[in-house]
Structure formats: structure tokens, C-alpha cells
Design a protein that fits this description.
Chain lengths: 313, 415
């Protein structure tokens, strides 16, 4: 309930921001990373609007307030970066730093300049520091399941990616999907990769049913406690309906589709309806013109969802 | 002649002082140290150790037995340790971290196995320095350490190794003193459990850091290839943990007597050329250019233990002596250059360069031979810089500085 009201407030604030953005031709910033509680005060017709900051476009007239432990990364139209930590900042006075020097001459200059920096000769013992940690964790660890998260998965997608993390150079994995009720294996495959794409999921999975998936190490003779994740398959066409409703709302408020606003609004709306996996899959499947922004937004959305739900991903 | 000796002396003194100043300037040595810049991250020692030493003559070290943990679990580690403790081993070094607790039966049986005075567990620390390089103000902060349940009664040693570039291992610090407390390195701790005199010997040498005298190559069939061990030398006995547990009853009762057993990671399985916990060492068969790391951490520890047990240290010629050698080279070169220029022979410039090349080859040969045959490290960079710069400094001295000095103190060297 709390989560829903929070998401609704984000949506409303997002709409306010988007409308403001559409009305004025000011320079824009993009919020590409948020950590902790961050608020934004935007000036709108002599009236201050106080909203919680979310990903996407932001007009450069107003103030950002970062609470304790919060951090924000902004991108301007020249792709320069501004990182903010706890405090209050006037947007128009922010200082953006370039990723790197864009001039070839300055790159060459920096290269030659590096000749004069201290170089640690191999012959002097004084240059040797205790920085090699010659030890390892030899234990076999269970793979950490990354995606999909616990929750719904729409049958609208033609393929569903499954991903996991495991620190092993040449391990072979057995990827399995089981029916939750009967515990029967409905799909199984061996792979050496740390991801698996289930093509045509409707062939193996029924609608409105619970399943769990797991990844085990092939040829493992040791007792390892493996993790598994439960997901529920939502009916075919349901996601399309939800997306269609979201599209209508986007059209109602005349949001731009190419500036990331519509994209982040769709993700936020799906998230507010508990469709986190769908939101991530929608993000991965969406191809838009300004791909760089969308990729950054999606990554940050995923990060935010994981942090909020205290998940590992 | 007397005048020439005086000028040769002044020239050599001034040039050595210049070398001293340049050597201690906190800048890149590219202009005074072209050789080291050209072979960045390389050391003449590497050539001696990997190319000149006859690795066939290196004795197989039966004092050390290595168990490749592969990717294992705690139950198997406990089983292996229990099997080893039944034999009369000197020490068991476990180069593995158990820094998480699963709170299950395996944790308990591993804790029971490891809590033994013959066990040495590895840990790592981060060194905080106030200023550059090693200083008295540096102190340690534990980085990774096994959970307390496993370390109650066993000994511990730090596994940190010395690197100048972050990936090449050439030195180690036998012990680290922080706030008056002395911490032993993993290798030293293990070596002194077999040989009680090690501690005194290390202390008597008074070297805070020791060069590692690498002699023994990485074992394992998968490593029998360039640049790791293309000639397929076997200097240590190694088996996998699974194999060891399976065969433990087949070993002769006296096989493990007084042995140091090292348990560490050397690949996920016998056929895996894993790059985890693997480093570049002086034994890498590619001494320059791109290569792959040649030795797992546990084999580096084994090499250090062998070195300590054999008292096979690398002795370094002190920097003061290097300056003296540089001085002598400059002093001699003054007369050589004078002689060549006085004779006005054809292509005198090339004759000077030829002399420098011959000196370069002789000095490089001397460094290589001292290292490979006698384990004596003669600093190459300083003395070779003296040779390379000697003619330019000579010209500057003879054409510019000498006139100035003549006005001040001396008559012309030709008088």
C-alpha cells in the first residue's frame, strides 16, 4: 500500500515535471543516478513545486535538496557529468565536468606529460608494496540468481532472459524451471554461460501458474545449498493492455517519446503495478532513438528497484 | 697526466652527483633511464632467473607438498586436513579464506580440523602509508581474514606479496611490525615451523624486504606450456584435493614426515588454466612484451619457503657501491674518450659509441652472471645510465666546464 502510494506520488511528480519541461524551452539536465532521498524544487509560474526527484529530464531552474547519505548524478546536454552529495544546490549554478578531454591535442599533451610523472623503477625495493593478496576462496559457491526477480512474468514476451552471477571461469550449469505445485521439471538446459534465454516461453509455461527456477553446477559432487526463485506467469495479452493504458496517459499529457520521459514513466507505472520483471523486460526490449539515455535510465531503474526491495542483482 | 687525473676525478665526481640528483628526483626517469622505460615492468633479474638459470639443475623440493584445493567445499578441506594431521607433518599452510559462515555442520567440522597448532591460515592486509614507499609510519589494516571460529587455536600468516606494478611479484616482507607487534608472513611462519633457526636468520639479514629467489616452476600438466613451463620441469609435487582424499591411505606412513603441506588454489580442475590468484614472476618465460601470469599464489609461497629453508637469499649490492662503480666507470671513460679524441681517428664519434656499447654488453653480462650464478643483484640501471651519459657529460665538461674551472682553480689539462 505504502509502495503504491509512493509510486503514485512519483508518477504525479513526474507528470508535473514533464509538463513543465514541455512548456518552456530551457536547457535540460537528465537525472541518471539517484541514491537515497532527493527532492527537487522547481519554479512554476511564481510558485514552487516540491517533488521527489526521479529519473529523466529536469529543467535547469530550481533547486535540488539531497538528504543525508543521498547522491545524484546529472547529465547536461553536452554529456557532461555533475555528481552531487548531501546538501542543497541551485540547478542553474551547477558545475558539470567533462568525462574526458575531447581534444586530440590535449590527449597527446597529457600523454607526453605522463613522461614526467614519477615512474616506479623495478630495481628499488622501496617501490615494492604489499599489494598482491596471494590467497583465494576455494569453496564452490552456489550461483546467485539475478533475473527474473520473484514476482510476475508476462507471457507477452517472445523470450525471457534468465541471468545469474557466479565466480567461476569454466563451470557448466544446469538451468531448470520447475512447476511449483508438482515440483516437476518443465524445462532444463545445460550451459557454460551465466545467462539463458528461454525462447518461446509459452511452449513450456502455462499462463497464470507458479514456477520456480534454479541454476546448479554440473558435475558437482559437493553439498551446496542452491537458491531458487519463484515467478508467476501472467496471461498473454495482459501486458499489452497495461502498456496501452500507459500510452494513452502519455498521449494525454503530451509527453515526448524521445527524451526518456515516456520511457521512465512507463517503467514507473509498471513498477507501481507490481510488474517489476515486466518493466525491466520492457526496458530491454524497447528500442528508441536516444539509446544512450534509455540504457542509463534502465540501468538506474534496475538499481533503484533492487535497492528498494533489498535484492541482490 | 697529473692534470688529466685531476680533471677525470672532478668530471667523475660531478657526473656522479648529477646521477644522484636525477636518480632521486620524483619524476619519470625516461631521459636518464631509457633502458628501464623501454622495458617497463621488466627487471634484469627476470632475464637471469628465467633465461640463464638451468632449471634442470634445480633440485626437486620434497620438503613441500602441494594440494590444489580446486573449487572445493569445507567438508573436503576438513577431511584433507584431518588426513594430513594423522601423519607427522611439520606444518599445514591453508592458503584459502573462510571468511563467511554458513552456520551448518560443515563449519563445525572445519573449525574442529583447523584449530590445531600445526595449521597456518592465510590472511591479507592493506598497508596504509604516510608518504611514498615503505616508511616507519606505515600501518596495516586487515583486509580478508577467516572467521574467528576457524582461527582460535591455529597460527596465522599474511599472504601479501610485494609488487611494484600491481601484478608482478618479486619481493616479500618476512615480517611486518605494526604498533610494536610483529606479524609473520605466511611463508615465514610455515618455514620456521620446520626450521626454528629461520627467524634468527631473517632477523640477522636486517632486510625489511627480501627479493624472492624464484627457482621452482609452476607444477601441473596444464601449465606445461610457454610462457609458464614449456620445458615441463617438475620441482614440486602437487595433487588435487579430491585425489588426495581418495588416495590418502595409499601414501607410505613416512611420506609426509616433516613435510610442509600447502593447500591452495591452482585451478578449478586439473585441466583449467585458471587466472585466479595467479601472478607474473621472474620465472615467466616471456621477459618482455605481453604474456600471461605464470604462477599461482600458493606456488609463490612454496618458492619463498624453499628459499628460506635453503638460505638461498638474493643479496643486493648496496646503492653506495653502485655510485662508486658509476664513479669508476666515469673516471675510466674520461681517459678513454680523451685518448680516442686525441688520436683524431676516422669516425671518432662512432668509436666512442662502440666503446659504450662494449661497456653496456659487459655490464649487462656481469649483472646477469652475478644474479644467475651467485644470486647477487647488481643494480643495472644506475651504472648503465652512467655509461650512456658519460660521453655527453664528458663533452660538456671538456668543452664548457673545464674552461670555467681553469679560470677558477687549475691550469689547462693539456699543459
Amino acid at each position: 500500500m505504502l509502495f503504491k502510494s509512493f509510486s503514485t506520488s512519483i508518477k504525479i511528480s513526474f507528470l508535473a515535471l514533464a509538463m513543465l519541461m514541455a512548456s518552456i524551452g530551457h536547457s535540460q539536465y537528465y537525472v541518471i543516478a539517484i541514491k537515497g532521498k532527493v527532492f527537487c524544487i522547481q519554479k512554476e509560474l511564481n510558485e514552487d513545486t516540491y517533488v521527489q526527484l526521479t529519473y529523466g529530464a529536469l529543467q535547469a531552474n530550481g533547486k535540488i535538496i539531497l538528504k543525508a547519505g543521498a547522491a545524484v548524478t546529472l547529465l547536461n546536454e553536452q554529456d557532461d557529468i555533475c555528481k552531487l552529495t548531501e546538501g542543497e544546490y541551485l540547478l542553474e549554478k551547477l558545475t558539470f565536468n567533462s568525462h574526458e578531454s575531447k581534444s586530440s591535442i590535449s590527449k597527446i599533451y597529457n600523454y607526453f606529460k605522463s613522461f614526467f610523472l614519477e615512474h616506479k623503477a623495478t630495481e628499488s625495493k622501496n617501490h615494492y608494496m604489499n599489494k598482491v593478496y596471494a590467497i583465494s576462496r576455494g569453496e564452490k559457491q552456489a550461483p546467485i540468481l539475478d533475473f527474473p526477480l520473484d514476482g510476475n512474468i508476462s507471457m507477452d514476451f517472445n523470450k525471457i532472459p534468465f541471468a545469474w552471477t557466479h565466480s567461476c571461469d569454466n563451470c557448466e550449469y544446469i538451468f531448470t524451471i520447475n512447476d511449483l505445485a508438482s515440483k516437476e521439471i518443465v524445462f532444463s538446459s545445460m550451459t557454460t554461460e551465466k545467462e539463458f534465454s528461454l525462447e518461446n516461453p509459452r511452449k513450456y509455461l502455462s499462463e497464470n501458474r507458479d514456477y520456480f527456477w534454479s541454476v546448479k553446477l554440473a558435475g558437482s559432487e559437493h553439498s551446496i545449498e542452491y537458491d531458487n526463485r519463484i515467478f508467476h506467469t501472467s496471461p498473454y495479452g495482459e501486458l499489452k493492455k497495461v502498456l496501452s493504458l500507459i500510452d494513452d496517459k502519455i498521449k494525454d499529457v503530451k509527453l515526448f517519446e524521445n527524451d526518456g520521459s515516456a520511457f521512465i514513466y512507463t517503467l514507473s507505472s509498471l513498477e507501481s503495478q507490481g510488474m517489476i520483471n515486466e518493466a525491466i523486460l520492457f526496458g530491454k526490449h524497447t528500442t528508441v532513438d536516444s539509446m544512450r539515455i534509455e540504457n542509463a535510465l534502465l540501468e538506474n531503474f534496475i538499481y533503484d528497484v533492487v535497492a528498494k526491495n533489498n535484492l541482490s542483482f | 697526466m697529473k692534470g688529466q687525473v685531476k680533471h677525470a676525478f672532478i668530471y667523475a665526481i660531478l657526473s656522479t652527483l648529477l646521477l644522484f640528483v636525477l636518480h632521486h628526483l620524483p619524476i619519470n626517469h625516461i631521459f636518464i633511464d631509457p633502458f628501464s622505460e623501454a622495458i617497463k615492468s621488466q627487471d634484469v633479474t627476470d632475464i637471469s632467473i628465467s633465461k640463464l638459470r638451468d632449471h634442470r639443475k634445480v633440485k626437486f623440493d620434497d620438503r613441500i607438498f602441494i594440494i590444489n584445493s580446486e573449487i572445493t567445499d569445507r567438508a573436503l578441506v576438513a577431511k584433507s586436513v584431518n588426513q594430513l594431521l594423522k601423519h607427522d607433518v611439520s606444518a599445514i599452510g591453508v592458503d584459502l579464506l573462510f571468511d563467511s559462515l554458513n552456520n551448518n555442520y560443515n563449519d563445525t567440522i572445519l573449525a574442529n580440523s583447523l584449530n590445531n597448532e600445526k595449521i597456518v591460515l592465510g590472511y591479507s592486509f592493506v598497508e596504509h602509508n604516510h608518504g611514498h614507499g615503505h616508511s616507519e609510519n606505515s600501518h596495516m589494516e586487515i583486509k580478508d581474514k577467516s572467521a574467528e571460529i576457524f582461527t582460535k587455536e591455529c597460527k596465522q600468516g599474511y599472504v601479501n606479496l610485494g609488487t611494484q606494478d600491481g601484478f608482478t611479484v618479486r619481493t616479500f616482507q618476512p615480517e611486518y611490525t605494526d604498533k610494536g607487534k610483529v606479524y609473520n608472513s605466511f611463508s615465514k611462519q610455515l618455514a620456521q615451523m620446520r626450521d626454528k633457526k629461520i627467524s634468527n636468520i631473517v632477523n640477522d639479514r636486517k632486510n625489511k624486504i627480501e627479493w624472492i629467489n624464484f627457482r621452482r616452476m609452476q607444477p601441473g600438466d596444464v601449465n606445461m606450456k610457454s610462457p609458464i613451463n614449456k620445458n615441463e620441469f617438475v620441482h614440486y609435487q602437487m595433487t588435487t584435493m579430491r585425489q588426495f582424499v581418495q588416495d590418502s591411505s595409499l601414501y607410505a606412513p613416512s611420506f609426509f614426515k616433516d613435510k610442509i603441506v600447502l593447500i591452495g588454489f591452482c585451478g578449478e580442475n586439473e585441466n583449467a588454466l585458471s587466472m585466479k590468484d595467479r601472478y607474473y614472476t621472474s620465472l615467466n618465460e616471456h621477459t618482455s612484451g605481453r604474456s600471461i601470469p605464470d604462477m599461482h599464489g600458493v606456488i609463490v609461497h612454496a618458492n619463498i619457503i624453499s628459499m628460506l629453508l635453503d638460505r638461498d637469499f638474493i643479496d643486493e649490492i648496496p646503492e653506495k657501491v653502485l655510485y662508486l662503480i658509476s664513479f669508476l666507470l666515469l673516471f675510466v671513460n674520461y681517459f678513454v674518450f680523451k685518448k680516442i679524441l686525441a688520436k683524431k681517428i676516422l669516425l671518432e664519434f662512432w668509436a666512442v659509441r662502440l666503446v659504450q656499447i662494449i661497456e653496456f654488453i659487459l655490464l649487462l653480462g656481469l649483472c646477469l652472471v652475478l644474479m644467475s650464478a651467485f644470486s647477487i643483484k647488481l643494480g643495472f640501471i644506475l651504472i648503465i645510465t652512467a655509461v650512456i651519459m658519460s660521453f655527453e657529460l664528458f663533452e660538456f665538461y671538456d668543452h664548457k666546464l673545464v674552461n670555467y674551472l681553469k679560470k677558477l682553480f687549475y691550469k689547462s689539462p693539456n699543459q
